[in-house]
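G., the chain you wanted modeled:
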Amino acid sequence: MTNTLVKARLALAAGLVLTLPAHAFDWNGLLKGVLGQPETQQTTTGVDALSSTEINTGLKEALTRGAEAAVGQLGQKDGFFGNTQLRIPLPEPLQKAEKAMRLLGMGKQADELLLTMNRAAEAAVPEAKTLLVDAVKEMTLEDAKGILTGGETSATDFFRRKTETKLNDRFLPVVKTTTDKVGLAQQYNRYAGTAAQFNLIDKKQANVEQYVTQQALDRLYILIGEKEAEIRANPLKAGSDLLKKVFGAATSK
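Predicted structure as tokens:
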């Protein structure tokens, strides 16, 4: 608004003051209109309406719940093997040779390795609980805001970034203790290790224990992501008033 127009409106307002009774004139309202100011301030909504404490506490509660639920589901008998979507398959080179193995009477050995790999993963997953919870405790307010306003898997990405290397080190010896007992696993490791040296197979599949460890970690993060998506999709069922408030603000639900 130009200075000339403002002056003109102020002059008009002054004229109205002189011609109208004092009780009939809303000077404040007119002055705000003249100066281009709203009569009422906008109410802060969404994430901006939340306090830092609410964001931090709410996110930590959500992440802890999601991590504990995922570990609890996977770290029990048939947590992997009993779920067709989470079951760890044979390494790709063995999958390609599986039909031939069964024709040669090695079907039992293949089944034993498949079961053992999944049991090894189920035994290793409980090792994740402490590290996941520790990652939540160390989460900064900046981390929390980034997760809350980020994409659908931002919490899962946070967990992977903070814990994957440490979890790999925790899982590997647990998995190895179990798979070392299976003859076919030892045979696979000998042949796959040689093949990996010549880049004939992915180095992540060069031994059974590393393969199972990576597969277990991938599935753990997938499940954590599913728990996260459930909360984001329906914050009203999140489980506590604080979670409803925090995720409801983030999703405007």
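The chain has two domains: 3-34, 47-251.

Shout if anything looks off.
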